[in-house]
Amino acid sequence: MNRHATPWAVLTAAALLAGCDVTGVGGPGGDSAPPARGGSSSAVSPLVNPEGTGRGLAAVTAEEERAKARVLVERLTVKGRGPRTGYERDAFGHAWLDTADGVALARNGCDTRNDLLKLHGRDVEFRAGSDCVVVSMDLHDPYTGKDIAWKKAKAAEVQIDHVVPLSYAWQLGAARWDDAKRRRLANDPLNLLPVQGRANSAKRDSGPASWLPPEKGVRCAYAVRFAQVALKYELPVTAPDKRTMLAQCGGQAAVTR
After folding, report:
1. 113 against 24, higher pLDDT
2. Mean pLDDT of the chain
3. Where are the alpha helices (DSSP H) in the chain?
4. CA separation for the pair 59, 192 (Å, rounded)
5. Which residues of 178-215 are buried (b: 16+ CB within 10 A; e: fewer)?
């Protein structure tokens, strides 16, 4: 459990009082496409996955659930994106630390990347003598809706996406955080999804107004996950990003800076 979860607990309670109780995903509704086929059948809705420790990213399609998603997104504050000056990946700790205290899966003897591959993969195989290093697996990529038969020999075919990109976070306030909080954001399963490498490369450090998953049916779920991370870490988003996130879940509310 997250030992720094007090703000998140308060947020969850507030969401419940606002009618955003975290229930399961219902049937299709609204204008979203149906969930992708393949490994997505076991994916978990972000509305019932506040720590990011459930597998995958299930579509949020029922109107009742989309309404709850809009309540969540509406809670986001907005701010202009600042300069990227001073940003470097190492400001968030060496990649895939197992020592980012305060997030799920930390200090279990396995680095964050392999933790995420184990968590989201199916038919996972490990290096001989290891219960950590994943050498092959099947992955359903929520961003493209495709199933990937992955092997470590072609590691870049699956990359770990930061849902809220680290550079984006830097420009919206993380530059002023302490090192420990930045390490948590970089290694928090809530902010991480293994996805197709090409999709992750195309996203770069974009917010939702500039990039959305190619798989249209998962875009509201992606907006929810982005909002969950931003709220947990008390990060604002840009006004265009908030408008886009609301629109993916059927909202049309005005957003002002």
Report:
1. 113
2. 87
3. 6-17, 63-74, 112-120, 166-171, 179-187, 197-203, 219-232, 239-248
4. 17
5. eeebbbbbbbbbbbbbbbbbebbeebebebbbebbbbb
* Cα 37 from Cα 39, distance rounded (Å): 7
| Three-state DSSP state, 98 | coil
Give the pairing type, strands 122-126 and 134-141: antiparallel
- Which residue in the block uniquely carries the two structure tokens 């659930």? 65
Q: How far is residue 144's CA from residue 157's CA, in Å, rounded to a whole number?
A: 13
Query: Residues 6 or more apart from 13 whose CB is under 8 A from it?
Result: none
**H or E element: which one contains 148?**
strand 146-151
Task: Look at residue 24 in the predicted model and tell me its pLDDT.
Answer: 32
Task: Report pLDDT digits (tens) over 102-130.
Answer: 999 999 999 999 999 999 999 999 999 99
Least confident of 14-23, 107-116, 142-151, 220-229: 14-23
| Residue 201 pLDDT exceeds 60 | yes
Amino acid at 255: V
User: CB of 151 within 8 A of CB of 68?
Assistant: no
